[in-house]
Automatic annotation (TrEMBL):
Molecular-function GO terms, alphabetical: channel activity
Recorded name of the encoding gene: Aqp11
Major localisation: membrane
Name of the protein: AQP11 protein
Membrane topology: Multi-pass membrane protein
Transmembrane segments: 181-205, 217-238
UniProt subcellular location: Membrane
Species per Swiss-Prot/TrEMBL record: Cepphus grylle (Black guillemot)
Length: 239
């Protein structure tokens, strides 16, 4: 049921993106906002559901296999979208994108993060699948299972590795590139998922753990917002 739910989300987002491109060509800003919002919504909604399947047996093989598969699916179905505020910062800082357009995309990403969380909570209330039972009573699921300093360093390191890899594989054929990036993300989740969740995406982190940001805003913003953004700036300055 969970897999069918995520597949339905991917199909629905694909239809919305196609309709947006056809109907809003004459409104580039609105078109850009909606495309980025729909794309980020897909990633956030599917990842919220994947987190419920992380404890499925056999562990951790099921969770890692689903992570790899859906990362490939996102890469193939969401071309042209960054879905990550850190990925939007680079063209803004380098002058390839105006500050207004970059801010529009980042705003769309966080709007999508909130909408995805609200949407998934609605579906979890229906209890269509076994993992949904009790999902709403978790509150802050506390993904940070280490000290704040170590969590900051892990997210910073993972962001640097991820962003550097994305830059290095830009010249590779897209149908192969998406598998390389998916493999990297799966490896990072395996290496640090039990410590910080290996998120390195501020919008996704806010969608997955909003209650944690309410309870410990400064700690979680430092680890899940500032650390990946700092990693992006380090890559920009060094490379």
């Amino acid at each position: 049921t969970s897999l069918l739910l995520m597949a339905g989300i991917v199909v629905a987002v694909g239809l919305c993106r196609r309709l947006t491109r056809r109907r809003l060509r004459s409104h580039p800003r609105l078109c850009t906002f909606l495309l980025e919002m729909f794309s980020t919504f897909q990633i956030c909604a599917c990842t919220n559901e994947l987190c419920l399947l992380g404890n499925a047996e056999p562990k951790p093989h099921t969770g890692l296999t689903l992570t790899y598969g859906f990362t490939v699916l996102h890469g193939l179905t969401l071309p042209g979208s960054t879905c990550n505020p850190c990925g939007t910062l680079q063209p803004m800082w380098g002058g390839g994108t105006s500050v207004k357009m970059g801010g529009l995309k980042i705003g769309a990403q966080f709007v999508a993060a909130v909408l995805a969380r609200v949407f998934m909570h609605f579906l979890w209330r229906l209890e269509m699948a076994e993992p949904h039972f009790g999902a709403l009573s978790q509150g802050c699921s506390n993904p940070m299972q280490t000290t704040e300093v170590q969590a900051f360093c892990i997210e910073l390191l993972f962001s640097v590795v991820f962003q550097l890899t994305v830059l290095r594989v830009e010249s590779i054929n897209p149908k192969y590139r998406v598998h390389l990036i998916a493999l990297l993300i799966t490896m990072l989740v395996y290496a640090g998922g039990n410590l910080t969740g290996a998120i390195f995406n501020p919008a996704l982190a806010f969608s997955l753990h909003p209650n944690c940001f309410y309870d410990k805003f400064w700690s979680y913003s430092l680890v899940y917002w500032i650390a990946p953004s700092l990693g992006k700036f380090l890559i920009f300055y060094v490379f």
